[in-house]
Design brief:
The protein has about 260 residues and is mostly beta strands. Helix content is about 0%, strand content about 75%. It has strands at about 1-10, 15-25, 30-40, 50-60, 60-70, 75-85, 90-95, 100-115, 115-125, 130-145, 145-160, 160-175, 180-190, 200, 205-210, 210-215, 220-225, 225-235, 240-250, 250-260. It has a six-stranded antiparallel barrel with strand order 13-14-17-18-16-15.
Length: about 260
């Protein structure tokens, strides 16, 4: 690895020029090779401005990330963000205010080829002092390992304290012996209480081959300070099937209840 860094200007708010390379690294289980980071930033400590570029080779193809920091005393900002990983691209711009609320837009695109594509748009805004989010995603004929997602649609809007949306997906999976179709449709609601209790509520209807999974009541997943609780009153091929799970410090418990399966 090789790194070259130069600081110029006043000590209280210098400018930085950096050019560094690294042969290989692993992040979140993913391998990166031939890594290079380059940047030229002014007002480094108060409001960093200037270009940043990162390139690397991955198992999915070449990675190229570029952006221009355009921060002010009012908060951090990134203009002209562009990420490319093989054929997939992400572009947009966003800013972060002193209250850590982001505004801006990110667009994800996998170009259409042979009726295959991925498109997603994430809009961020300040909604009455809360982080506002609007996410829309569509995909068609995307293959991952043994799974082929023929159609996927996801829409969600609201804030981190109250988010509602819908998820719909269908596809198939294959092994050496069988091909099974699968599908999932569910509305969803994500809420956060003043005590920082997060609650995700689903009403799923799904199928996997000859199995149909429904719900007799809403499925609820709750998270608070490291504790996870799942209450899933489901049905399997029309018969009651309940799943309850709790995980906290020093505790992990799973209960399954069924009748006449």
């Amino acid at each position: 690895s090789e790194f070259s860094a130069t600081l110029t200007g006043p000590r209280t708010d210098p400018a930085l020029r950096l050019d560094g390379t690294l042969e290989a690294a692993t992040l979140a289980g993913q391998g990166f090779e031939n890594i290079r980071l380059r940047t030229e930033l002014s007002e480094l400590l108060s409001a960093p401005k200037g270009p940043v570029r990162l390139t690397a080779d991955t198992t999915y193809g070449p990675l190229d990330v570029g952006a221009r920091l355009a921060s002010t005393e009012a908060g951090y900002a990134v203009d002209d963000l562009e990420l490319r990983l093989a054929e997939l691209s992400v572009g947009g711009a966003f800013a972060l205010d002193p209250n850590n609320i982001a505004t801006g837009q990110l667009i994800v695109n996998l170009p259409e080829e042979d009726d295959r594509y991925v498109r997603a748009t994430l809009d961020l805004e300040n909604v009455g002092g809360e982080q506002g989010i609007a996410l829309k995603a569509d995909a068609k004929n995307v293959i991952y390992q043994t799974y082929a997602v023929e159609n996927l649609s996801f829409n969600a809007a609201g804030t981190l304290a109250a988010l509602t949306g819908e998820l719909s997906m269908e596809g198939r999976t294959s092994d050496a012996m069988l091909t099974r179709e699968f599908g999932l449709d569910t509305p969803l609601t994500l809420s956060r209480s003043p005590e920082d209790v997060y609650r995700l509520v689903l009403e799923p209807d799904a199928d996997f081959g000859r199995y149909q999974v429904g719900h007799s009541d809403a499925v609820a997943l709750k998270y608070q300070a490291g504790k996870i609780e799942l209450d899933a009153p489901l049905t399997l091929n029309g018969k009651p099937f309940a799943l309850n799970y709790i995980r906290a410090e020093g505790i992990e418990e799973l209960k399954i209840r069924s009748n006449n399966l």
